[in-house]
Amino acid sequence: MHSAKVDFYDRDIVSMRDLTRKDIEYLMDLAETMIPYARGDRVNHSLKGKILGNLFFEPSTRTRFSFESAAHRLGIDVIDVSQISETSIAKGETFADTIRMVDAYCDVIALRHHHEGAARLAANVSENPVINAGDGAGSHPTQTLLDLFTMKRSKGLIDGLNVVIVGDLKYGRTVHFLADALTMFGAKLTFVSPESLQMPRDIVDDIRKKGYDPYQTSNLNEVIDEADVLYVTRIQKERFPDPSEYKKISSIYRINNQNLREAKSDLIIMHPLPRIDEIALEIDRTPHAKYFEQAFNGIPMRMALLYSILGGEM
Ligand code: NCD
Question: For FRET with 245, which of 19, 94, 164, 185 sits at 20 to 30 Å CA-CA?
Fold first, then answer.
């Protein structure tokens, strides 16, 4: 069954705050129908002739390649820049002018940038739609969408799930609006982090305003047995002002078979990846591991976005 059609044509995707539950449900349903196309079992090139501009000013494997793969699966061509040194920014051109140029050369822009707010600025400057592919420690809406989609596919529904989010909740941009969106779907939240890397105050306040009270702790063992979903994040080394602070907490949480002894048998473990050492390799072979499937889900979800923003046809 499909949710009522939502008009995404020509829309920017800058923050999860711009999306309603109805919007998200629509995208998750559309992503589900994209799966055979994402695998290459069916073909839909209805967006042939369109161009995606991939502008990645920060490292990326999954987000960038899955945008590219999603585009190709829909017949969309891709032009991309991944090195500031390759662009006229290196000559002193402003970010806004660079966006204006890319805007003139393509039909939609996927932007990753180290500054929070860069995607909003780009969306204001660009005539064509801009999709935020991660802005600094701010937000990463397409990751949040694929995370919600992965939970729904694995668990059937999100309502009532007990979701434990662990790791660097301060700088980890994938979890900020994931937490907020999960409350929109009626999930119960627990945040596990060292005190110095707790979920930002404004995010917790927003969740409280909605009538939810996430439990916050630094002790993973205390909460693992109740979890339906364990969402693990990397400690975001590159965003630490002081490297010695990073060193102190770098390997603080490490998920292995030993600390999953008390976990539910149908617990799923997610991670936006890349992982460093937060999840032991032995977990990969267990039915708990959902992170590789989660990474694949980036393709159907980004296809759903490109398809609805550019007006594809089945
Ligand atoms: C994340 C990111 O870039 O925010 N990765 C991703 O997009 N899949 C997570 C991270 O870098 O830790």
Answer: 164
From 66, 143, 178, mutation site for ligand 1 pocket: most ligand atoms within 8 A of C-beta: 143
Closest ligand 1 atom to residue 168 Cα is 12
Three-class DSSP category at 44: coil
- Chain centroid to Cα 54, Å, comes to 16
Q: Find all residues with CB under 8 Å of 136, minimum gap 6, and list them.
A: 113, 114, 115, 116, 117, 118, 173, 239
Measured from CB, residues less than 6 Å from any atom of ligand 1 are 62-63, 134, 140, 143, 173-174, 234, 272-273
* 251-307: pLDDT as tens digits: 889 999 999 999 999 999 999 999 999 999 999 999 999 999 999 999 999 999 999
User: Starting from the edge strand earliest in sequence, which strands make up the sheet with 51-56, in order?
Assistant: 77-81, 51-56, 108-113, 130-135
Domains of the chain: 16-139+296-310 (3.40.50.1370), 142-294 (3.40.50.1370)
Nearest CA to ligand 1 atom 8: 272
Which residue is listed with tokens 């305003």?
209
pTM of the predicted structure, to 2 decimals? 0.95
